[in-house]
Amino acid sequence: MAIIIKTPEQIAGIRKSSKLAGQTLNFIEQYVKSGVNTEYLDNLIHDYMRDHGAIPATLGYNGYPKSSCISPNNVICHGIPSENVILKEGDIINIDVTTILDGYFGDTSRMYAIGEISTEAQSLMDTTKHCLDLGIQQVGPKSTFGNIGFAISRYAQAKGYSVVYEFCGHGVGLQFHEEPQVDHIARRNSGQVMKPGMIFTIEPMINMGKARVKIDEKDGWTARTIDNKLSAQYEHTILVTTEGFDILTDVNGEY
Question: In terms of Cα–Cα distance, which of 253, 254, 246 is closest to 12?
Fold first, then answer.
């Protein structure tokens, strides 16, 4: 399937949904603290989206049972919120949300630290965030998708970390997952050429240990590191413009 070039009307709709996704992550931050269970956070996220006219894209998606993915410590992605998962001092967690607003999708995630965390955990989070930034800097007309993965993997590996290759970024906006697949390890100048109007996620998952993933056999979703070492992830939804890029989920003016 071809990569969809979004129309101005579609871009406007995706922009609104992406803004709400980013605002959802800002909203939930005040509740992310020691002693809280992830089911409680998921319920707050669900209600916030519904109160703002949106629905959570993950709920019921291929049977997924919750309104967000909340992945602590050694969980790489797709952590299912549960009242049995209780946050504690020193944890790091990723919260991943996707909104559907007026039929348009916005997708973003970020890391949260619970109280005082180890220097190793902070370094992993900082490196992962910089990997996302480096990937975003490769976005622009006439660049190729391989440049994203090349920049991310080169930096992460130089820092002594591994890059998850079993999950990737993806086109988004009119559907939850569209073309293209955005790999976080790739050769420079490989892949399709970017064009204005393309919208996709960059969402590097960086591991402290090995890159491999193991999926929980019981729930079929939770993806953990093969060696139980820490993992981190950050994600934005990005539009290719005639001049470069526009980060649709950046609600804090960071870029």
Answer: 246
For residue range 93-144, list pLDDT tens digits in order.
Answer: 999 999 999 999 999 999 999 999 999 999 999 999 999 999 999 999 999 9
Which residue in this structure is represented by tokens 């996707």?
98
The side-by-side arrangement of strands in the sheet containing 162-163 is 162-163, 205-207, 231-233
153 contact partners, CB below 8 Å, separation of at least 6: 163, 184, 185, 186
Query: Domains in the chain, please, with CATH?
Result: 8-247 (3.90.230.10)
Task: Please state whether the predicted TM-score (pTM) of the whole model is above 0.85.
Answer: yes
CA-to-CA distance for 202 and 236, rounded, in angstroms? 6
Give the C-alpha separation, 216 to 149, whole Å.
27
